[in-house]
Design brief:
There is one protein chain. It contains 4 helices and no strands. It is an all-alpha fold. The longest helix has 42 residues.
Length: 164
């Protein structure tokens, strides 16, 4: 890779990092507005929104995990833009993103509906047929496993480098 290619790669990584920061902040602010500020204003006006607020907050929980995955990806891109080695950065990012997507997907399919059943006195199903959540959960698990493989490969490479 030439110096200009490396500089272009680092610049794109830095741009992607800022895109991830923008997404996390904007979507996080919208979640806070919808699930924290609006119910607080309605409560101050005298409306009873406690049960509804809790159910909506539970439905928003997978999004928090997905936003963490975006944040972890942006963090890895920021590290790469500063010149950190690709292999250890990628292994760490794959594991963090994989866990976040996996837990977000599991929560989306099984957790949200069952916690909502507890809040709403047993109404609703046992699982939510959310193909996107299932897909993200599976991809998250695969990324986590691939991150472990990359981490092990890095250790083996370091050991081989010591022998030479």
């Amino acid at each position: 890779m030439s110096q200009t290619d490396l500089a272009r790669f680092r610049r794109r990584c830095a741009q992607f990092r800022w895109l991830a920061v923008f997404m996390v902040i904007s979507v996080g602010a919208l979640l806070a507005l919808i699930h924290v500020i609006a119910p607080a204003v309605l409560t101050l006006r005298g409306e009873d929104v406690a049960g509804r607020w809790l159910t909506q907050a539970v439905w928003a929980l997978p999004t928090v995990f997905y936003l963490f995955a975006v944040w972890a990806t942006g963090s890895a891109m920021g590290q790469l833009s500063k010149g950190r080695l690709i292999q250890p950065t990628l292994a760490s990012a794959l594991r963090r993103v994989g866990l976040a997507l996996g837990f977000g997907g599991l929560l989306s399919v099984f957790g949200v509906t069952n916690v909502s059943r507890l809040i709403e006195d047993g109404q609703g199903g046992w699982a939510y047929f959310d193909v996107a959540g299932m897909t993200l959960g599976m991809i998250g698990g695969a990324l986590f496993l691939l991150g472990g493989v990359m981490e092990q490969a890095g250790k083996v490479q370091a050991e081989l480098d010591e022998m030479i």
